[in-house]
Design goal:
Blueprint (H helix, E strand, L loop, with lengths): L7 H10 L3 E5 L5 H18 L4 E5 L5 E2 L8 E3 L4 E5 L9 E3 L5 H4 L5 E4 L4 E8 L4 E8 L1 E3 L4 E3 L12 H12 L4 E4 L5 H13 L5 E6 L2 H5 L1 H7 L2 E5 H7 L5 H14 L4 E4 L14 H13 L3 E2 L3 H4 L4 H18 L17 H16 L4 E5 L4 H8 L5 E6 L2 H6 L6 E5 L6 H14 L8 E6 L11 E6 L2
Parallel strand pairs: 1-2, 2-12, 5-6, 12-13, 13-14, 14-15, 15-16, 17-18, 17-20, 18-19
Antiparallel strand pairs: 3-11, 4-10, 5-9, 7-8, 7-11, 8-9, 20-21
Helix pairs in contact: 1-12, 5-7, 10-12
Length: 464
């Protein structure tokens, strides 16, 4: 979200074209700007009966250089320049970095990348107090506030900065559905964020943004700790060799699907559409391949926040996704890998069985009741051909589950009996023209329904 997509009529057109989740980037804009967008999203949800979720994306420990002189600095290959932790206006001799422990953390010969890797420097020496001497390896014009990446350095800044904690307070106060944590390095980073959310009495789920080599090293523990993952290819492609990113994307998507965690593929998906109404053929292939990799969501950034064609870009992306999903199925669906030692073994086995039955009965839908959302995560991870229709009395889940592949949510809060509930929800789908008389649907629920326990019941129903 951004200036190009903030107006209600534009946002409504984007939602009608296929938007499921709106991302608020806390690296930009003020709190009141984000709140205004949230109000607009909720207004549309209420007015048009949509379930668009909200992702508050925290900036994390993004390192930047400070202000430099007007016109920028021309960095020449082979010359040296000082990087200092003392705030000043940068010139040809020295520049300021917003990273207080930078001189203590870097070592000689480590690489420093600026402006998404366009400029490269090498550390010559550090006084371990306030100044690092660097050699310009690949120069260029450096302007104010450009990002800094340190692919070889073990950064000591915490994943949640003071600014992030302040922004998180706002996001939780506004009851966002998802919180994105940038520059995640370990599973512990996720657990610390979840602790703050729990102590606030809120239900927001967490997206781990994978964009550092340390995150790749710890990917299994990160996936285990988080609720979802974003393959943030912008910084990941700077922090790691570019040629490794495609296979890393596939590896992360595969692991997330096996763990029943949603995965988002992000960055430069239809980048050329910031200024043109048609994408490049390579971009179309990128979006399509991300779907084939098994992504739950594909994300746009500048294309919809500041681009000239925010609605057209959504329509374009939706067409690509729809074509791949209709003609390329099955794509990377997972086989049943139920772990008998898991405390959720029975529920997992039942969800896998529901998908199996749906495929072998050519069912029109898998219809599930959930309180926690667990069943939705599990069923969605199989990428079933049948529609996945989730009914819940937990209003928070209505929008949060919109991130999951193939899931549509509905509000239902009656607790009469299992048979009555199944009849009710199937009738609701029939009234919405999502199923029709004679269709097979696979119903899952918890019996007895009043206990709201783990899913333990499976029923094959023919819609009457």
């Amino acid at each position: 979200m951004g200036p190009a997509s903030a107006k209600k009529d534009v946002l409504l057109a984007m939602i009608q074209a296929g938007v499921n989740i709106c991302r608020l980037n806390f690296s930009h804009g003020k709190a009141q700007d984000h709140k205004a967008v949230i109000d607009t999203i909720r207004e549309i949800n209420a007015e048009y009966k949509t379930n668009v979720g909200i992702l508050a994306d925290l900036q994390g420990p993004k390192i930047r250089i400070g202000l430099v002189k007007d016109g920028g600095i021309h960095l020449v290959n082979g010359t040296s320049i000082n990087i200092t932790t003392h705030e000043l206006i940068g010139d040809d001799n020295q520049i300021y970095i917003t990273y207080p422990t930078f001189p203590q953390d870097v070592k000689a010969d480590e690489i420093i990348l600026l402006d998404d890797g366009k400029i490269q420097m090498r550390v010559i020496s550090t006084n371990r107090v306030d100044t690092v001497v660097c050699e310009v390896v690949h120069g260029g014009i450096l302007t104010s506030r450009k990002g800094v990446n340190l692919p070889n350095t073990k950064v000591s800044i915490p994943s949640l900065t003071e600014e992030d904690i302040e922004n998180l307070k706002y996001a939780l106060e506004w009851d966002v559905d998802w919180v994105g944590l940038s520059f995640v390095r370990t599973g512990q980073d996720i657990l610390e964020l979840k602790k703050i959310i729990a102590e606030s009495g809120k239900a927001a789920k967490v997206i781990a943004k994978v964009e550092k080599p340390e995150a790749i090293d710890n990917i299994d523990e990160i996936i285990a700790a988080t609720d979802g993952v974003m393959v943030a290819r912008g910084d990941l492609g700077v922090e790691m060799p570019l040629e490794e990113v495609p296979l890393l994307q596939k590896m992360i998507a595969r692991k997330c699907r096996l763990a029943s965690k949603p995965v988002i593929v992000a960055t430069q998906m239809l980048e050329s559409m910031i200024t043109t109404p048609r994408p490049t053929r390579a971009e179309v292939n990128d979006v399509a391949n991300s779907v084939l990799d098994g992504a739950d969501a594909v994300m746009l950034s500048g294309e919809t926040s500041v681009g000239e064609f925010p609605v057209i870009v959504i329509e374009t992306m939706a067409k690509i996704i729809r074509n791949v999903e209709e003609l390329g199925y099955p794509f990377n669906s997972k086989s049943d890998v139920t772990d008998a030692s898991s405390p959720d073994y029975l529920s997992n086995a039942l969800c896998g069985s529901a998908v199996y039955l749906a495929e072998h009965t050519n069912a029109a839908g898998i219809v599930s009741m959930t309180t926690s959302g667990y069943t939705a995560f599990e069923i969605s991870s199989y990428r079933p051909k049948a529609g996945t229709y989730i009914f819940t009395a937990n209003k928070h889940l209505l929008n949060a589950l919109s991130l999951l592949w193939g899931v549509r949510t509905f509000y239902y809060d009656k607790d009469e009996s299992t048979d009555q509930t199944i009849a009710d929800v199937n009738n609701m789908l029939k009234e919405a023209s999502l199923v029709q008389e004679g269709d097979v649907v696979i119903n899952t629920a918890s019996v007895p329904i009043l206990k709201k326990a783990k899913t333990n019941m499976l029923k094959v129903t023919v819609v009457d």
